[in-house]
Amino acid sequence: MAATYDAIVVGGGHNGLVAAAYLARSGARTVVLEGRHKTGGAATTEAPWPDAPEFSVTRLSYVMSLMPPTIINELDLPRHGYRIYPMGPYYQAFPEGGSIKLYADDAKRNHDEVSKWSKKDADAMPKWDAWLEGLAEVLGPLLLTVPPAIGSRKPRDLADTLRLAWRHRGLDVRTIADVTRLMTMSIADLLDDWFESSQVKGALAVNGVIGTWAGPYEPGTAYVMAHHSIGDVGDGHLGNWGFQEGGMGAVSGAIERAARSHGAEIRTGARVARVLVDGGRVTGVVLDNGDEIRAKVIVSTVHPKIAFLEHVGKENLPDDFVGDIEHWKSRSGVVKINLALAELPDFTADPGSNLQEHHTGSVEMAPTMEYIERAFQEAREGRPATLPFSDGVIPTAFDKTLSPEGTHIMSLFTQWVPDDWNEEPHTAELEAYTDRMIDCYNELAPNFKASILHRDIVGPYEMEHDYGLVGGNIFHGELSLEQLFHMRPAPGYADYRTPVDGLYYGSSATHAGGGVCGIPGWQAARAAIADKKAARRTGQVRRIIRRS
Ligand SMILES: Cc1cc2nc3c(=O)[nH]c(=O)nc-3n(C[C@H](O)[C@H](O)[C@H](O)COP(=O)(O)OP(=O)(O)OC[C@H]3O[C@@H](n4cnc5c(N)ncnc54)[C@H](O)[C@@H]3O)c2cc1C
Fold first, then answer.
1. Which ligand 1 atom sits nearest the alpha carbon of residue 475?
2. If you take atom 49 of ligand 1, which residue's CA is the nearest one?
3. Distance between CA atoms of 506 and 173, rounded to whole angstroms?
């Protein structure tokens, strides 16, 4: 006999866990089916060195920002272990000498720092911050908006589109122009309009290319910068970026505990092979061991190519939709490098291996825009970057749970390797790439190389084959313009519903994803719960009509 639930969640990444928590909270008997041996997906803390189990790394994602207070509060996440240490400043030391620090909330110190490189840029900085804040006020709430099916003539879709337009009736010509610029420009062109010094532009360009298969001169990278810079998604002020105590796996752990507290069941080692569809409706899933589990509601949170092309099957989907998912772009050329350090980097520009402010934020290797662009161009030509760029962090500056007293963990989010490195492990080349990355930091902090106790390298092949991140893209799909808002994951299906009745979709490949924000899982569960309530109301009306 197949086990039966009210709802099945496919994938136990943080979005799957959020969806499960909300479904269970609504009273649905819910089970999460996770293929790996543990939950968390890309939000995971692991001990990658068998001979040094005392070190834990936040193996893929590494910092929190966009989780809305609604989810944090409704799921009571702090009670379940959600604890964030706000990050320190952005820090870049330069090979030619000197350094820059940029603070999220200290205009005076930013002015002093930027003045070291350009007085004009220092004066422009507060205007830039205000400009970005103005745009965040427009874009932030949009992250919590269910995108309407723009172009659809169905009355409900037309009403949704009009409601969205009405909500934005206050925008003026200037703001619309600014949003248009942000959505269409390259981060390089945008920064050229504002700043002159290469050090400042390099510093501000990083957010435009994180996780992106595009260099800073590609149109659309200005939006990527905004996606990573919005600190408030419209339902309260969010802090800056921050480190979860215990690494990102502890975020997943907190959500998992919340889901369990509402009665959700969570099964690991339960890989889904097929979603069962009968007459255009889901009826359950089959696991790869042949077990069948039945439910009338399924929320899938795995990569769209797995969710639709493998699990549902083209035969159960409209041709247009199949085409859209087949064309879904999912490249990024990211390599995550996790290091255990015997001591903190001692930067020539800011000497000392004792804990200092510049160790507490992002410790970057992105000295100029040209440096970042060169790394991308090499990867686009099919070679790993000679000098990769890196968004580094040292979470143990705050979090003492990850490594023994006196030692540290450093996490390097690096780019780029060629976009087809998801097809082969490229082990030896990744080792050489990591050596080069370490040499780059060593040039700025000469104790760096010698301080490394252990290293762990996760390239695109492992991301795809072990974590289900098809193509190695960190967000289940690129944040390119044609894959945003009403197009994410496909036109007509950006409302977390799918062409199959009873099947909802809430991975990072939907609007507001990617990132560890939980919004896709929350929205998919809300859509399922709303549809169930609507069906119950319709059933009641039908019964009343039949009785009368
Ligand atoms: C290297 C890297 C760095 C990143 N850095 C950050 C960061 O610092 N901050 C940030 O906010 N975001 C970051 N991200 C992005 C963020 O981690 C992801 O967008 C997010 O975690 C995805 O969550 P998800 O639940 O949608 O999907 P996932 O986390 O991918 O979860 C999907 C789950 O489904 C499981 N699965 C797959 N196939 C099956 C199947 N057939 N049956 C059952 N289960 C299956 C997978 O094992 C996985 O656990 C990073 C990502 C990467 C890879």
1. 19
2. 41
3. 34
Does 533 have pLDDT greater than 80?
yes
CA 160 / ligand 1 centre spacing (Å): 30
pLDDT surpassing 60 at residue 464: yes
Is the separation of the CB atoms in 143 and 230 below 8 Å? Answer: yes
Whether residue 35 contacts residue 269, with contact meaning beta carbons closer than 8 Å, is answered with yes
Please give the Cα distance from 180 to 175 (Å, whole number): 8
Question: Ligand 1, from 302, 303, 330, 362: best to mutate by most atoms within 8 Å of Cβ?
Answer: 302
Q: pLDDT, tens digit, for every residue of 114-130?
A: 999 999 999 999 999 99
Axis-axis angle for helices 107-115, 119-143 (nearest 10): 140
Cα 428 from Cα 273, distance rounded (Å): 32
Query: What is the spatial distance between Cα 476 and Cα 542, in angstroms, rounded to a whole number?
Result: 41
Strand partners for 265: 31
Q: Quick one: the chain helix, strand, coil %, rounded to 5?
A: 40, 15, 40
The gap from C-alpha 64 to its chain's centroid, in whole angstroms, comes to 9
Index of the ligand 1 atom closest to the CA of residue 33 = 43
- Ligand 1 — pocket residues by CB below 6 A? 10-16, 33-36, 41-43, 60-63, 271-272, 301-302, 306, 334, 336, 413, 463, 467-469, 474-476, 507-508, 513-516
Q: Quote the ligand 1 centre to 164 CA distance (angstroms).
A: 30
**Which of 525, 499, 524 has its CA nearest to residue 509?**
524
d(CA 533, CA 529): 6
C-alpha–C-alpha distance, residues 215 and 384, integer Å? 14
Distance from the CA of 252 to the center of ligand 1, in angstroms?
10
Q: Give the range among 162-176, 297-311, 350-364 with minimum mean pLDDT.
A: 162-176
Mean pLDDT of all residues belonging to the chain: 94
**For 251-262, what is each residue's pLDDT tens digit?**
999 999 999 999
Q: What is the pTM of this model?
A: 0.96
Closest ligand 1 atom to residue 509 Cα is 26
Across 412-424, average pLDDT: 98
The more confident residue out of 208 and 231 is 208
Structure tokens at 198: 């290469």
> HSE of 101 in the Cβ direction (CA atoms, 13 Å)?
18
Q: pLDDT by residue (tens digit) across 219-247?
A: 999 988 888 877 654 455 444 689 999 99
- In this predicted structure, the answer to whether residue 523 has a pLDDT above a threshold of 80 is yes
Rg (CA), the chain: 23
**Which protein residue has the closest C-alpha to ligand 1 atom 1?**
60
State the Cα–Cα distance between residues 205 and 271, nearest whole angstrom.
Answer: 39
The token duo for 202 is: 């390099």
pLDDT(512) > 70: yes
**Ligand 1 centroid to residue 419 C-alpha, Å:** 18
